[in-house]
């Protein structure tokens, strides 16, 4: 997907990976989408607070570079499995925010026709096989999708997103082993935000880095700063190339942080205000990416302003679309339990 | 002198029971995900970690199968674990240890060991948490000989039955409906037990028997109160334990009223309603029946996210009223 011409490429020779790899237009698109993820979640949070959305939700605010960086080298028909903290993955893989809002509002125009909500958000047409309410539930499913890709020779690569907490489920270990022995085109992406709910990785996990687990399954284990878009995208590029070449899976550990609580019922008693404050003000992925883009001359204040206002409009329109959409008819309750047959 | 009785929430009652159990017996300890400083997903363990320390209030990694197995292992070797699942739905990840190990170990080893294990399962729908966080799986476990399965419906019973469970030498599975956690009710101070395997008649009546479990006990009582005005006199039996079931209480009630309705939140088919109905059909109460038995259970679907659909898939008070009114036709 290299978009930069030879001359432009030479002038960028000393810049980080993505600035050599992608056109200015593509990079601005990335910033746009990172804002879209952030504002989508802020919008969803506000709707929740105002009682327009029920249930709970898990916000990925602070983890946008990870979702975007991993999805950057994926083709539209490549697939992902996602997690309970999956709004960012969904948008990064190409979903429309209006249909996501509609799902959160429980409407028929939502991606799951109002049946799934935030925790089951999916966009199958764009290759997102779904968020998951079960920690590590999506990991073996990604391996199965990788098996289909290999058996059907589709050339598709499959990414499995999961959190640090998921690495202590048996499903994680069983899945990695099978992907490795069958050399499947799967990329395991651990978004390590330091905590599984209230439990820090230091308290839950015997190894220092989740990537260290890769050694047990004979695959590369790569650690990246998950808040730096370029670092994440570069690692994803390499893993995708390896997968497409039939060389098998990679485990990428993307070290990041969630700014918000685990869900809507978190009192944040397991971490300090200072820690949260530090990540928010010094390592925010959008701020970091934006200032690189500015510094390297890819965008100016006007360009940033244009992105921000376009995103604001998209969010406002999305919420309106969701509100105006119809709720499912109660008589349709049995739909989708089984496949409709003529 | 009677113990002081206070109003406590269902969650507080469970917490108090766990504290009493730990005070009385140093072998009792708690295990689960985020039950320490977080206080549990539903704040049931609350601040117990501050009082009992991290050695006795153990946060596990997110490892349900392994965690359940560790609890089984500790139980057969002298400890008394109380294991909290964050949601009952995650029992599915631990089924191996619950069903193949905990339930059968004593039997397979010819009585050489016991498994004094308590597991707690926050269950049920109504919180907007969708299909993987809202299920009622108690009948799954109720199908397994070797396990005891209880569903306390009130704060009083939640405390007393938990203490009975801890004292029990065999594995006891406690299903706690999440919507009950904030419900308040009278709870005596100090130690007491409510026996496992004993149903309770929550309301006496002559015209029809409703056998209900967990949150449905309250809905049935509401329906019964509403129908009183229409002259329909309903008896509400709170089953409390689904294995081993208190058959006699149900049989006696049906012999008195000649009409039976079962109300439960879990999916209607192949569940507790089928068991109660068949048990009555096999008993001497069968001859007393004046009308076909009615089951009101959950729809044959996963729990949907949309709030109206979510309500529609489990029995609500108006559904119970309508069904009971129908069943009571021709009573007098
Ligand atoms: C099998 C299972 N166990 C427990 C939970 C409850 N739960 C949901 S998210 C979560 C923490 C997950 O932590 P992590 O994998 O690090 O992802 P993060 O929330 O940090 O993104 C827990 C314990 C669950 N949904 N599924
Ligand atoms: Mg985490």
UniProtKB/TrEMBL annotation, chain A:
It catalyses: N(6)-[(R)-lipoyl]-L-lysyl-[protein] + pyruvate + H(+) = N(6)-[(R)-S(8)-acetyldihydrolipoyl]-L-lysyl-[protein] + CO2. The keyword Oxidoreductase applies. Its cofactor is thiamine diphosphate. InterPro entries: DH_E1, PDH_E1_Alpha_Subunit, THDP-binding. CDD domains: TPP_E1_PDC_ADC_BCADC (cd02000). It comes from the Bacteria. Gene3D superfamilies: 3.40.50.970. Pfam families: E1_dh. Residues 33-330 form the Dehydrogenase E1 component domain. Keywords: Oxidoreductase, Thiamine pyrophosphate. The keyword Oxidoreductase applies. The pyruvate dehydrogenase complex catalyzes the overall conversion of pyruvate to acetyl-CoA and CO(2). It contains multiple copies of three enzymatic components: pyruvate dehydrogenase (E1), dihydrolipoamide acetyltransferase (E2) and lipoamide dehydrogenase (E3). This is Thiamine pyrophosphate-dependent dehydrogenase E1 component subunit alpha. It comes from Mesorhizobium qingshengii. The lineage of its organism: Bacteria, Pseudomonadati, Pseudomonadota, Alphaproteobacteria, Hyphomicrobiales.
UniProtKB/TrEMBL annotation, chain B:
InterPro entries: THDP-binding, Transketo_C/PFOR_II, Transketolase-like_Pyr-bd, Transketolase_C. This is Alpha-ketoacid dehydrogenase subunit beta. It comes from Mesorhizobium qingshengii. Keywords: Oxidoreductase, Thiamine pyrophosphate. Residues 8-183 form the Transketolase-like pyrimidine-binding domain. It holds the Pfam family Transket_pyr. Its cofactor is thiamine diphosphate.
């Amino acid at each position: 997907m290299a978009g930069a011409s030879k001359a432009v490429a030479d002038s960028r020779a000393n810049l980080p990976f993505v600035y050599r790899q992608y056109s200015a237009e593509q990079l601005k698109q990335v910033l746009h989408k990172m804002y879209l993820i952030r504002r989508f979640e802020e919008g969803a949070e506000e709707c929740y607070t105002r009682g327009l959305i029920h249930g709970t939700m898990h916000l990925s605010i602070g983890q946008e570079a990870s979702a975007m960086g991993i999805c950057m080298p994926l083709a539209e028909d490549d697939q992902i499995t996602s997690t309970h903290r999956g709004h960012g993955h969904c948008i990064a893989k190409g979903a429309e925010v209006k249909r996501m809002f509609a799902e959160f509002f429980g409407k028929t125009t939502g991606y799951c026709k109002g049946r799934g909500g935030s925790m089951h958000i999916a966009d199958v047409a764009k290759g997102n096989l779904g968020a998951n309410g079960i920690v590590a539930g999506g990991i073996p499913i990604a391996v199965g999708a990788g098996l289909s890709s290999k058996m059907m020779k589709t050339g598709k690569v499959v990414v499995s997103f999961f959190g640090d907490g998921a690495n202590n489920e048996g499903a994680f270990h069983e899945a990695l082993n099978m992907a490795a022995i069958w050399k499947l085109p799967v990329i395991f992406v651990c978004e390590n935000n330091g905590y599984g709910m209230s439990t820090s990785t230091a308290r839950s996990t015997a190894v220092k880095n989740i990537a260290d687990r890769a050694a047990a399954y004979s695959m590369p284990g790569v650690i990246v700063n998950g808040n730096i878009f370029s670092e994440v995208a570069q690692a994803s590029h390499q893993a995708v190339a390896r997968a497409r070449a039939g060389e098998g899976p990679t485990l990428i550990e993307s070290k990041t942080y969630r700014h918000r609580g685990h869900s809507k019922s978190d009192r944040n008693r397991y971490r300090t205000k200072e820690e949260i404050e530090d990540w928010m003000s010094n390592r925010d992925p959008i701020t970091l990416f934006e200032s690189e883009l500015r510094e390297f001359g890819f965008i100016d204040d006007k360009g940033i302003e244009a992105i921000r206002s376009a995103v604001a409009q998209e969010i406002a329109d999305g919420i309106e679309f969701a509100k105006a959409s119809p709720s499912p008819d109660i008589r349709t309750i049995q739909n989708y339990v089984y496949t409709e047959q003529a | 002198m009677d113990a002081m009785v206070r109003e406590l929430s269902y969650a507080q009652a469970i917490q108090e029971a766990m504290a009493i159990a730990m005070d009385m017996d140093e072998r009792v300890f708690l295990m689960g995900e985020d039950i320490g400083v977080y206080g549990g997903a539903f704040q049931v363990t609350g601040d117990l970690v501050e009082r009992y320390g991290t050695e006795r209030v153990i946060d596990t990694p997110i490892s349900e199968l392994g965690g359940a197995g560790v609890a089984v292992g500790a139980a057969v070797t002298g400890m008394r674990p109380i294991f909290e699942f964050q949601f009952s739905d995650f029992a599915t990840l631990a089924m191996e240890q619950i069903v193949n190990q905990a339930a059968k170990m004593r039997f397979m080893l010819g009585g050489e060991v016991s498994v004094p294990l308590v597991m707690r399962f926050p269950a049920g729908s109504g919180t907007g948490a969708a299909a993987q966080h809202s299920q009622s799986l108690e009948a799954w476990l109720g199908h397994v000989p070797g396990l005891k399965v209880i569903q306390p419906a009130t704060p009083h019973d939640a405390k007393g039955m938990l203490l009975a469970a801890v004292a029990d030498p065999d594995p006891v599975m406690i299903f706690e409906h999440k919507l009950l956690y904030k419900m308040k009710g009278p709870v005596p101070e100090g130690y007491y037990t409510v026996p496992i395997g004993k149903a309770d008649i929550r309301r006496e009546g002559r015209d029809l028997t409703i056998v209900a479990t967990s949150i449905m006990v309250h809905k049935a009582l509401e329906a019964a109160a509403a129908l009183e005005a229409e002259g329909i006199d309903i008896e509400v039996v709170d089953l409390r334990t689904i294995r081993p079931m208190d058959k006699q209480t149900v049989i006696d009630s049906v012999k008195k009223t000649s009409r039976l309705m079962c109300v439960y939140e879990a999916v209607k088919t192949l569940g507790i309603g089928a068991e109660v109905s068949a048990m009555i059909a096999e008993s001497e109460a069968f001859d007393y029946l004046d009308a076909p038995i009615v089951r009101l259970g959950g729809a044959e679907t996963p729990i949907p996210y949309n709030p109206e659909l979510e309500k529609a898939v489990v029995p609500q008070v108006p559904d119970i009223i309508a069904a009971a009114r129908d069943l009571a036709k021709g009573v007098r």
